[in-house]
Amino acid sequence: MEYVAPNSLDKAAEIAANARGSVRYLAGGTDVLVQLRSGLHQPSLVIDLKRIPGMLDVVRTADGGWKIGAATPATTLNAIKELRQSWPGIVEAAELIGSTQIQGRASLAGNLCNGSPAADTVPAMLAAGATVTIVGANAERKTLSIDDIVKAPGQTHLKPRDIVASINLPARSQKGADAYLRFIPRTEMDIAVVGCAVNMSLDGETVSEASVALGAVAPTVVLVPEAAECLLGTRLEDEAMENLSMSCRAACNPIDDKRGTVEFRISIAGVLAQRAARTAYQRARERQ
Amino acid sequence: MKMMHVTTSINGDPTEFLCDPRETMLDVLRDRLNLTGAKEGCGTGDCGACSIILGGEVICACLMLAAEAEGQDIETVEGMANDENLHPLQKKFLEHAALQCGICTPGILVAAKALLEKTNNPTETEVRYWLAGNLCRCTGYDKIVRAVMDAAEEMRSL
Amino acid sequence: MALDDAFEAREFKVVGTRPIRPDGIDKVTGRARFGADASASGMLHGAILRSPHPHARITSIDTSRAESHPSVKAIVTRDDFAKELSGEDWNVLENVMAGERVLYDGHAVAAIAATSVLAAKEALALIDVVYDPLPFVTDVDEAMRPDAPVVREGVADESVPEGMNPNVVRYHENGHGDVDIGFAKADLVIEKTFKTEAAHQGYIEPHACLAQLGADGNGELWCCTQGHFVAARICARLLGIDASQLRVTASEIGGGFGGKTTVFIEPVALALSRKSNRPVKIVMSREEVFRATGPTSSASMDVKIGMRKDGRITAAEGEFRLQGGAFPNAPMEFAAMAAFAPYDLEHVRSKGWDVLCNRPKQAAYRAPGSPMGAFAVESVIDELCNKLGLDPIEVRIQNGSKEGSRAAFGPRFKRIGLIETLEAARAHPHYRAPLKPGQGRGLSCGFWFNHSGETSVTLSLSYDGTVSLAVGTPDIGGSRASMCQMAAEELGIPFDRVRTTIADTGSLGYNDVSHGSRVTYASGLATIKAARDTIQKCCARAAEEWGIDPEAVVWEDGCAKPSGHNAGDFEPMSLAEIAANMGDTGGPISGHFEATPTGAGVSFATHIVDAEVDRETGAAKVTRYTVVQDAGKAIHPSYVEGQFQGGAVQGIGWALNEEYVYGDDGRLQNAGFLDYRIPVASDLPFIDTVIVEVPNPGHPYGVRGVGETSICPPLAAIANAVSNAAGVRMTHLPMSPPRLLKAMQEAGIG
Fold first, then answer.
1. Residue C656: closest CA among chain A residues belongs to which residue?
2. CATH of C452-595, one of 3.30.300.30, 2.60.40.1640, 3.30.365.10, 3.40.1360.10
3. Per-residue DSSP letters for chain B?
4. Per-residue pLDDT for C1 more than 80?
5. CATH topology for C35-134+206-253+260-292?
6. Of B24, B130, B133, the CB nearest to A33
7. Which residue of B23, C259, C425, C459 is most buried, as measured by CB atoms within 10 A?
8. Interface predicted TM-score (ipTM) of this complex, two decimals
9. Rounded to two decimals, what is the model's pTM?
10. What is the reported pLDDT for B83?
């Protein structure tokens, strides 16, 4: 295995294009290092992205959105007050990944590229309508939605030489907020048994836009438009909440494993959706 | 395997080493630099026994390639004491008997130091969540949490 | 000797204080040297190839490709170890390196020594093993069925009735009275079946060793172990060498809890060293620790208890089925014997079954067997109290064992402190504190025998009057501090004038392992006796100097003094003065003690737990915890509290989330700290402690072991709290959220 740390995206793309054998990109490394050690991946080249200007930065874009460099660790996101105010669900999802030590390294882009259906930030990004800027093998830039990338456990639709350059969050409407909740057996340090993100905007007290995404209940993180539909035009009355739970449960296609059973995951998806929706709603109201 | 040459700073000491690109920072600290204070409890970032401070942030040395250390500032437990004077956290851990076997102690001290550099008045809950990535199997964390809070109090009064 | 060991009330100066531990600075600065922190010139690194099958015949092992790897210096298989071992020696060897068959997922098959860790791991893939997979079984109840796959034939001893599956290898029974008569007198009889899953000790330091062995059988071994003398004895047998030719040094040990009382990698490293003629270091990965060291048994249990309306227990009966992996000696008799120990019963009967499964060989884990048995018994008592509307502490006081009570396992108790712990729990503010909605309270007692074991200690004077104390029990939780305290107390000198060292096997007589909560009791007793031996020698030197009879000299406040005016009028002679002249007055002065003491006092505890249950998700959280335990005498109270807190929290992990999860393929699914979920700091409240001191009559200061009893009550206390919060009796541990939610849903709760 070789290690390189190029200082520009174009250079990184060129190295990747010319590389023989498999290539792994290194951002925070909290998944990549574990996979190297376990022998799951034995790349011939690791390209460290952290020396590339901008990869560790968060920038407010002209339209009021956010551009988050691909290797930006969770601690950096958490330290930006305006980002926390705009996208509290995304920041809290990032904050849930692993320990303090992991927080200092783990990135949104890494969480996405790892391809886990249980990734904490992916439901939040999906619900937020985040996009991803990618540098391809010829150094061409393209932008994809999160939905375009998630594929299967441990896999994404990215091409082997594609480099994620940034995660882009849209501008937040004045009356909107998001929330992410996950269920884990302990209070920290676990992988989500179920995750749920809810993003919404209000018109007055009424939900005018909504999206709901679930993690760890299907082979990929999934958007559940039927669940979002249940929230539209409501003030989260009991009936809407009940419908939300039912839609989320219906969208589940989980497995039995060491972290939870099928029936448990389906049950919990309905509970978390209600709790996340209430938190997002409360936040949105407070923003008005 | 071609070795890499890395120039870095460890506990303020300019340091150079050669490493296999597959080696982690923890491998190099322990096996090449003879800094065995950081421990390997899991190798997967789940126990925190290898906690070090990299550019001001506490991280797991087992989840960092040694090659990434080029040009960085690294702090380990070996750099905590100021010559013969122990760091207040080190003193409080001894006074409170906040260790039994002591294998998790270096990692917890390093992580707690990073906490107290961010906030000098953490609540019990903040201490517990900050240290959630540092497993201790002997103490039940009771005396550890008390020692960290007592050290914070002492540092506030300095 | 018995009289000599007896407890004598006295005022203490050093014992009972809280000095800074002597190894403290090393441990907070990173200097302390643990198992993996050693290296040697020319050192190789070992790695072990492990079975991916839960049960298979090894058809062939071809090492030729690995041998041609340029970095590989030695490869060993079972052929490189002693032949014709039997009994437990054979069991240990078979576990360390598989013979004809692999018996569990992770069972060692071969090992390599290479010039680097990376090369050794890489070369493992070059060993070609052909397996012929066999049927397997991993559940204790399934393994007892007549048609279950057989783990090993011919293991069962004569205690097992005819006609059982060969997986059932030992049977045990204890008790007295006639339970049928007793049950007939009860107003309410409750019988339930319980299950606990296997838990791992979860020490943070993986097993590590550095071994050097020459063709002449002369060797050195450095390892993290709870007992280096025992490690030397076992390794010598497995390698076919003389125990005295193998000098073993115990490193600092990063947790053991029973899991480091035997050997796993040490004989392998020695065999690789012998073959390569170079030092070999082996460090287990965390995955290896989970797959291939010794977790505790999983258990399946039936308990039946009868109670009168006034709270008196009329009869109690239990059956305890424990699997201990693919080898005999699951601690089923300890479960059966300890389960009813807190109760003074007229009619009681316990049965135990030891069962083989295709899992790793169980090792001791803190009071092996007792926590599971207590879980079953104390759950039924809680249910009886609930149904009869009785206070759980009053019922336990009413039925509790005291001095003279006949234990369910046979003998009559000497002075014990169970009732005192219950009274202290009743008086504690926790017991009367109001509960919030969604919370429940649970209570449990627990019991452990405590052990003594072979013990040797040497105490030597230095010329400056300071003291070197050599003990042979590895310090797993601060015992060097308490040894220094006891030596200082006897000698009448300050704590910091004593340095305690864990001596290697070449420097001290034989010592049993640091287990069975024996160290402060047995090494402590030996330290006191070695100090008294030293004092006697010092008094003799003073007598000689003064020209009086040695019997006329007494030791007070660190000085030899004439016993009275009749003895003569001499200035007291301090330890420092005697030491300063020892070369001219007869030579170096050392005190010794070697024995297997017999007075380890049993220990009881009572725990109170509050837990909160989320009825929508099945999440349970411990919100308040109080440990009340009899320590006999707390030598260093901080480390006694630490044992109480640590045991309680290990119990919280076992009760709520820790378990070995095996897949349908018979492989361990959660061999890491990510999915083997030990408690983290944010899961827990502070753990309140109350030290009760009812002296052990068999120790000069009254010490009882404290390390293990603290894990006996938590499983039951937490299960009672959670059951009371959830409104449904939880009979299967851990009470993980899926299990708890399912139980509540089935009961129509939530």
1. A185
2. 3.30.365.10
3. ---EEEEEEETTEEEEEEE-TT-BHHHIIIIIS----S--S-SSSSS-TTEEEETTEEEEGGGSBGGGGTT-EEE-GGGSSBTTBPPHHHHHHHHTT--SS-SSHHHHHHHHHHHHHH-SS--HHHHHHHGGGS--SSSTTHHHHHHHHHHHHHHHH-
4. no
5. Aldehyde Oxidoreductase; domain 3 (3.90.1170)
6. B24
7. C459
8. 0.98
9. 0.98
10. 86
